[in-house]
């Protein structure tokens, strides 16, 4: 600025006469172009700030992923072992004990790929939501120490879950090959499906982050909500077959259950990966629903989160 | 000590004569606090029994607040800071100094009142962004990114940060997880990362006393450098000497209220009188 920058100190004991005397703090701030500290930026400015922090978001998600199993002896192997063990438990309970193999498109032999795909896809949404709830309330230290767009945190946690899922996809590939499902062109659909699901998950994580920052108790409640959602989405059984054949529920209930976002993304992923899961097995308008859910929840969640930007960090 | 005080007093007298000339130039405010109130809401800090039945009882009776207790940490503080000033914040423990700094940085929302700032003030410190399970190397990068440095900036300064911390003086420790460091080593690395960035309005919260003698000297020199580059500096410290050495204006907070605001020597004398009791 002027010489004052280099001049060092300025006397403060007796304020000198200056034209600024008698101005209220707000007028003084306006005169010198000072802005309110910690005020919420405009939506476009917020997006710009987030983009500028993209390297931090990515580095933070990777760091969290690395730190997760760093104390375990098997280390990063747990990234793959955890979802696999989950699938094994579900196979035993639902496949063997409860007869969930009935009605799986392409026959009973498809049950394992069907189940594992469902578990991995649903786990992606489930863990994104769970870490979203804690993304602000569990990182208050960070929020109170450094300045960055707070949406970085839920986004970063969703990306961490995506990276986790990519490890799982390697296992899934091996399982598919083991059951005689060889790569075909529809495998490429995995990319757009995951992209849409990521947007959906991130939006949902941002909604949960705002709610969780106000009410940390949600972290206790969410496991039950998520489990209910899981059973209602047909992770370990064919949703349409179970509702229609076993409960004789009205048609609209079948459609409503099938249209829920978790069911839609699982449906599409199974269609893309599993032989014998034909377009006829897809629910009507599956692609439109997948894109719709992503846009509505993704954009809506982002705006909802941004609206409280200046209030995060109050305990 | 007496000698140090005298020289400090002389220094501030020198500054006063300098200032007489500087005043004629524009006094540009950088931070304006206007009737600032900060209230923390603490979950689980309620008086009385914390048992489940007590909580249920509160919910049934719909007592407002329930488990929440409010802590009024800063009560109506107003001041204006100008470019080129180095301002010390003093007061006994729990008087609201750190809270005030965080509010200036825009990290804690105000209950009432406002803080206006020129640009983005930043706290010196990255502790919260670092992860103990990661190697020192990754933490340098993560910490730098968290402070808003670009990737190329970090690459340029990486070696400088590691050298400054002295982590590698006794072997290749930077590639080990931070949880394996001694507390002194970890503190040194944290300071080195935090001090790697240039700030416009810089706030230092008792960061001076970390590590061994040799490192303390180095870090003090670095803080002086940062001071020169920054427009306005806030320093929270319980070390009266470092306040006298670095600051030309002091704000004295006591239980959340601004008790005194003036030239270093005046406020420090009153404060020392107060603490002697």
TrEMBL record, chain A:
Gene Ontology biological process: lipopolysaccharide transport
Region called Disordered, residue ranges: 1-22
Bilayer topology annotation: Multi-pass membrane protein
InterPro entries: ABC2_TM, ABC2_TM_bact-type
Residues in ABC transmembrane type-2 domain copies: 74-308
Superkingdom, natural source: Bacteria
Name of the protein this chain belongs to: Transport permease protein
TrEMBL record, chain B:
UniProt GO cellular component terms: membrane
Record flagged with keyword Chloroplast: no
Family under the similarity heading: Belongs to the ABC transporter superfamily.
SUPFAM superfamilies: P-loop containing nucleoside triphosphate hydrolases (SSF52540)
Name of this chain's protein: Teichoic acid transport system ATP-binding protein
GO MF annotation list: ABC-type transporter activity; ATP binding; ATP hydrolysis activity
Keywords recorded for this protein, A-Z: ATP-binding, Nucleotide-binding, Transport
Organism domain of life: Bacteria
UniProt xrefs under CDD domains: ABC_KpsT_Wzt (cd03220)
């Amino acid at each position: 600025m002027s010489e004052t920058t280099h001049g060092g100190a300025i006397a403060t004991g007796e304020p000198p006469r200056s034209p600024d005397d008698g101005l209220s703090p707000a007028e003084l701030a306006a005169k010198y172009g000072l802005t309110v500290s910690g005020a919420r930026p405009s939506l476009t400015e917020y997006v710009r700030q987030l983009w500028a922090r993209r390297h931090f978001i990515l580095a933070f998600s990777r760091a969290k992923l690395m730190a997760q199993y760093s104390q375990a002896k098997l280390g990063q192997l747990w990234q793959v072992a955890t979802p696999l063990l989950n699938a094994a438990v579900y196979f035993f309970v639902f496949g063997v004990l409860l007869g969930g193999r009935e009605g799986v498109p392409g026959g009973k032999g498809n049950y394992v790929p069907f189940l594992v795909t469902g578990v991995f896809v649903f786990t992606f949404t489930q863990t994104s939501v769970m870490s979203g709830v804690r993304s602000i309330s569990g990182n208050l230290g960070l929020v109170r120490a450094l300045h960055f767009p707070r949406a970085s945190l839920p986004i970063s946690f969703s990306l961490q879950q995506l990276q986790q899922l990519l490890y799982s996809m390697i296992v899934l590939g091996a399982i598919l090959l083991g059951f005689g499902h060889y790569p075909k062109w529809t495998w490429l659909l995995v990319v757009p499906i995951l992209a849409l699901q990521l947007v959906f998950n991130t939006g949902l994580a941002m909604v949960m982050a705002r709610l969780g920052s106000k009410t940390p108790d949600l972290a206790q409640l969410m496991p039950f909500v998520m489990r209910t959602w899981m059973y209602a989405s047909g992770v370990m059984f064919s949703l349409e077959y179970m509702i229609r054949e076993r409960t004789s529920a009205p048609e609209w209930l079948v459609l409503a259950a099938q249209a829920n976002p978790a069911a839609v993304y699982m449906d599409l992923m199974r269609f893309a990966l599993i032989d014998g899961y034909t377009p006829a097995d897809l629910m009507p308008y599956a692609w439109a629903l997948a894109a719709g859910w992503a846009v509505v929840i993704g954009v809506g969640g982002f705006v909802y989160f941004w609206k409280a930007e200046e209030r995060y960090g109050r305990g | 000590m007496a000698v140090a005080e005298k020289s400090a007093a002389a220094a501030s007298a020198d500054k006063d004569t300098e200032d007489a000339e500087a005043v004629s130039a524009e006094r540009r405010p950088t931070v304006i606090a206007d009737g600032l109130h900060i209230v923390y809401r603490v979950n689980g800090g309620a008086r009385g029994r914390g048992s489940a039945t007590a909580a249920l009882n509160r919910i049934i009776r719909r007592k407002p607040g329930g488990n929440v207790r409010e802590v009024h940490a800063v009560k109506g503080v107003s001041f204006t800071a100008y470019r080129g000033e180095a301002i010390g914040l003093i007061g006994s423990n729990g008087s609201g100094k750190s809270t005030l700094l965080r509010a200036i940085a825009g990290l804690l929302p105000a209950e009432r009142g406002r803080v206006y700032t020129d640009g983005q003030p930043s706290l010196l410190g990255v502790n919260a962004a670092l992860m103990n399970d990661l190697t020192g190397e990754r933490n340098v990068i993560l910490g730098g990114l968290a402070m808003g440095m670009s990737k190329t900036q970090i690459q340029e300064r990486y070696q400088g940060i590691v050298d400054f911390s002295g982590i590698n003086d006794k072997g290749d420790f930077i590639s080990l997880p931070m949880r394996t460091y001694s507390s002194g080593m970890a503190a040194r690395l944290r300071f080195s990362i935090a001090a790697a960035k240039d700030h416009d309005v810089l706030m230092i919260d008792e960061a001076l006393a970390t590590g061994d003698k040799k490192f303390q000297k180095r870090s003090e020199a670095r803080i002086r450098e940062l001071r020169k580059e920054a427009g306005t500096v806030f320093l929270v410290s319980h070390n009266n000497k470092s306040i006298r050495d670095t600051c030309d204006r002091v704000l004295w907070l006591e239980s959340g209220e601004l008790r005194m605001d003036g030239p270093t020597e005046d406020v420090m004398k009153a404060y020392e009188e107060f603490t002697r009791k």
